[in-house]
Specification:
The chain is mostly helical and about 350 residues long. It folds into 2 domains: about 35-110, no CATH class; about 125-355, MetI-like (MetI-like fold, Orthogonal Bundle), CATH 1.10.3720. About 70% of the residues lie in helices and about 0% in strands. The chain has helices at about 1-30, 35-45, 55-65, 80-90, 95-110, 125-160, 165-175, 180-190, 215-235, 240-255, 255-265, 270-285, 290-300, 300-305, 310-320, 325-355. Helix 10 packs across helix 12 (about 270-285). The chain is globular and about 90 Å long. Mean pLDDT is about 75; it is low at about 50-70.
């Protein structure tokens, strides 16, 4: 197993390189980059698009020297070429694309992601600020989905075709069909001071006085804030895992070793949890990385916006709109690395559940 894990870890390097390389060149040739964003902001006299500079001063200087010039940037009409060159240099676009690519690879190999183009902070600091929210939503959502779906799927397999199986399938399919943001709106209206009850807060992960609370008060405050976002996130996550668990157990229950165990007089509970469970759970474990990643990164974007939670999903969306390349590529790098590590963790879990599996032998 050690040699297999070593090979998997070494494969992370070319995988990261391929993903970062493809995305780098696609984004670089796309129109509307950060220089265009900054020049457009200067045109409208905004300061948010010029990092560390005074947009109004640059705007006034460019207006005095305004004349049409040849430029590759669509937002440069009427601006002084010196101003355009200054902005281009600030963002590092005065270098050839090949040099920018090699610089990025060298920096990322040392986990140096640079600074945000439009925020006065480093990429690492922005990720560290946003990570706790996404980790919270991802872990709690995945935990709740697994704690509910696995026992429910087992019971549905044992009672296949019964009234319980039919109405429980109807409920989880309805939940799967309801978009998480729509369910979030319903929760806000009902329980967060919308039109009915005002039981839960609407904004943030903790209260303003969180630091002054005792340890048990901090736990209660944290759970109080995270309840509605987690409920909105998990609503559509039960169907897939429940049906996967049910089908996996039904396939195993029909196999010959189960018939043999029954013929030997073993009880149904012992057969189900000592023999069937280990084999059926392999498929469920295989889906863990995908479930966690979907909850961790993509599934919580609208929930983070609705409940004013500054997580990685919201950060990635905003930086993509702003063309903040360092944050875009930094978050992509972190997302990919976490996903690859989770896949390795899934293989390790395989062997823990069923020691007969030998990846190294294969």
């Amino acid at each position: 197993m050690g040699a297999y894990l070593l090979r998997r870890v070494l494969l992370i390097v070319p995988t990261l390189w391929a993903i970062i390389t493809i995305n780098f060149f696609i984004v670089q040739i796309a129109p509307g980059g950060p220089v265009d964003q900054a020049l457009a902001n200067i045109e409208f006299g905004q300061s948010s698009g010029v990092p560390g500079g005074d947009a109004s001063a640059i705007h006034n200087r460019s207006a005095l020297n305004a004349h049409p010039g040849d430029s590759q940037y669509r937002g440069s009409r009427g601006l002084d070429p010196e101003v355009i060159a200054e902005i281009t240099k600030r963002y590092g676009f005065d270098k050839p694309i090949g040099q920018r690519y090699l610089d990025m690879l060298w920096n990322y190999a040392r986990f140096n992601f640079g600074d945000s183009l439009f925020r006065s902070s480093s990429v690492i600091e922005l990720i560290k600020e946003s990570l706790p929210v996404s980790v919270t939503l991802g872990l709690w959502s995945t935990l709740i989905i697994y704690l509910v779906s696995i026992p429910l799927g087992i019971k549905k397999a044992v009672r296949n075709g019964s009234a319980f199986d039919i109405w429980s399938s109807s409920l989880i399919i309805i939940g799967y069909a309801v978009p998480s943001f729509l369910f979030g709106i319903l929760l806000i209206v009902l329980f967060a001071g919308g039109s009915y009850l005002d039981w839960f807060p609407l904004r943030g992960l903790v209260s303003a006085q969180f630091d002054s609370l005792p340890w048990y008060g901090k736990i209660v405050d944290y759970l109080w804030h995270i309840t509605l976002p987690v409920l909105a996130t998990v609503i559509g996550g039960f169907a897939t895992l429940t049906m996967l668990t049910k089908n996996a157990f039904m396939d195993e229950i029909r196999k010959q070793y189960v018939v043999t165990a029954r013929a030997k007089g073993l009880g149904e509970e012992k057969i189900l949890y000592r023999h069937v469970f280990r084999n059926a759970m392999l498929l469920v474990i295989a889906g863990f990385p995908a479930t966690f990643i979907s909850m961790f990164f993509t599934g919580s974007l609208l929930i983070e916006v609705m409940f004013s939670l500054n997580g990685l999903g919201l950060l990635g969306y905003e930086t993509t709109i702003q063309r903040d390349y360092p944050v875009m590529f930094g978050t992509l790098y972190i997302f990919t690395l976490i996903g690859l590590l989770l896949n390795i963790l899934s293989d390790i879990t395989y062997t823990l559940v069923d020691p007969r599996i030998d990846f190294e032998g294969r």
